[in-house]
Design brief:
The protein is α+β, with helices and mostly antiparallel strands. It has three domains: 95 residues, RNA polymerase II/Efflux pump adaptor protein, barrel-sandwich hybrid domain (OB fold (Dihydrolipoamide Acetyltransferase, E2P)); 68 residues, E3-binding domain (Dihydrolipoamide Transferase); 206 residues, Chloramphenicol Acetyltransferase. Helices cover 20% and strands 24% of the residues. The protein has seven helices and 19 strands. It has a six-stranded mixed beta sheet with strand order 10-19-18-17-13-16, covered by helices on one side. Pfam families: 2-oxoacid_dh, Biotin_lipoyl, E3_binding. Its EC number is 2.3.1.-. Belongs to the 2-oxoacid dehydrogenase family.
């Protein structure tokens, strides 16, 4: 009997994924949980196992195609069930096309699919509009059989840094009004997209479509998708939902840099990579315990400010697939060495493409070290659902007032952006000043413990 396999949600709440390659062809015999394809999502490249044992009957989508969740991608002749192999089965209702592995596929009817655009080194005529994919999502968790593999940057990257979260009725409402959930900022608990969020998008004035510019010889056009597309959607949603305020503070970190060198040479940390970001992270985690409005969430749905009892610290990382923000869960429970190890492991996983969706979600406050790029400061945009993000600038030697004299000191700028709906200027300033005071004089850390 022929069994359809629909593209599963993979537990990330995304609406589509790209088929990178097929590991099987029509006529091949496959076993249960045998890897049949590589799928690229917003988080990583995933090896997709077969939900059936049988013979590949038909491949519906070719490699390089962006497919909506819930759309059929392959079918199998499965022995041991009514119907001869190779016979044409009667059409099954959507509800009967449930894959046999937990977490697979959406039972909804197949959505429209979007063919893959040209690769990044090919010219794409500007006058050809990209079709818009219909949103298809599944609330099912990811299958235990899914494995993450090393990812090489493809022509584009997947759909988003933050996974989309909406209840089925809200998803249906969005589909009915042709609203792309990827472009919405959830105002519910933990970033949940609510009915009100969708209706605000429906009632927003439509933008006049821009006239496509003709292609010019020598220019390169790269399809916007994957991590880049999702990052853009998340940043636009955050910037136009949460009123941002950024405050700046220049700090003499000479004593902190001396402490860093002592820690690096100590036996306790000989096998651990301690960086300035590690020290800043530890100070921030301790300071958040006193300044809880910075470790909070604006719950629009319930009209509440949710202050977290835990700190899940996001640490922004530049990768070959775009910006990612791995999350160190329960950072408040970690000592300095454990925090350093967790940061290093997550950053490596993000850059190698082996990071999991769970490791990219649930952040309550974030840090971005722009100093590694030789930058003094900036105005970081809040990750969706968070109340604060701290940008750490480069350390520069410069003339500075020290003990009533001018001396050459090591100075760094801190840039704190916060959601002005729940953090006012005084609260942000006090938090930033306390972090700066400890970095200026590490002995002040005792006041936070």
């Amino acid at each position: 009997m022929e069994k359809l396999f629909n593209l599963p949600d993979l537990g990330e709440g995304l609406t589509e994924s790209e088929i990178l390659s097929w590991r099987v062809s029509v006529g091949d015999t496959v076993e249960l949980n045998q890897v049949i394809a590589e799928i690229e999502t917003a988080k990583a490249v995933v090896e997709l196992p077969s939900p059936f044992s049988g013979v590949v009957k038909k491949v519906y989508e070719q490699a390089g195609t962006v497919v909506n969740v819930g759309s059929p991608i392959i079918s199998f002749d499965v022995p041991g069930v009514p119907g001869a192999a190779g016979s044409t089965p009667a059409p099954e209702p959507a509800a009967q096309r449930q894959p046999t592995l937990v977490g697979y596929g959406a039972a909804a009817e197949p959505g429209r699919r979007r063919a893959r655009k040209a690769s990044s080194n090919e010219s794409v005529p500007a006058a050809q509009p990209a079709p818009v994919a219909a949103a298809r999502q599944s609330p099912e968790p990811a299958s235990p059989g899914l494995r993450l593999v090393d990812s090489t940057p493809a022509t584009g990257a997947p759909e988003g840094i933050g996974h989309l979260r909406a209840r089925p009725p809200v998803r249906k409402l969005a589909r009915d009004h042709d609203i792309d959930l990827a472009g919405l900022q959830g105002t519910g608990t933990h970033g949940l997209i609510t009915r009100e969020d969708v209706m605000r998008a429906v009632e927003a004035p439509a933008l006049t479509p821009a006239v496509a510019m003709p292609a010019v010889a020598g220019e390169t056009r790269t399809p916007i998708r994957g991590v880049r597309k999702a990052t853009a959607a998340a940043m636009v949603a955050s910037a136009f939902t949460a009123p941002h305020v950024t405050e700046f503070l220049s700090v003499d970190v000479t004593e902190t840099m001396e402490l860093l060198e002592r820690l690096r040479s100590s036996r306790r940390f000989k096998d651990v990579k301690i960086t300035l970001t590690t020290l800043v992270s530890k100070v921030v985690v301790l300071a958040l315990a006193k300044h809880r409005t910075l470790n909070a969430h604006w719950d629009q749905e319930h009209g509440e400010i949710v202050e977290y009892a835990h700190v899940n610290l996001g640490s922004a990382a530049a990768t070959g697939r775009g910006l990612m923000v791995p999350v160190i869960h329960n950072a408040h429970e970690m000592d300095l060495a454990t925090l350093a190890e967790a940061t290093g492991e997550l950053t490596r996983a993000a850059r190698e493409g082996t990071i999991t969706p769970a490791q990219l979600s649930g952040g309550t406050f974030s840090i971005s070290n722009v100093g590694v790029f030789g930058i003094d400061g900036g105005t970081p945009i809040l990750p969706p659902g968070q109340a604060g993000i701290l940008a750490v600038g480069q350390v520069r030697k410069m003339p500075w007032e020290y003990q009533d004299e001018i001396a050459l000191r090591q100075v760094m700028m801190l840039s704190l952006s916060f959601d002005h709906r729940l953090v006012d200027g005084e609260q942000g300033a006090k938090f930033l000043a306390e972090v700066g005071a400890v970095l200026k004089d590490p002995a002040m850390l005792m006041g936070l413990v």
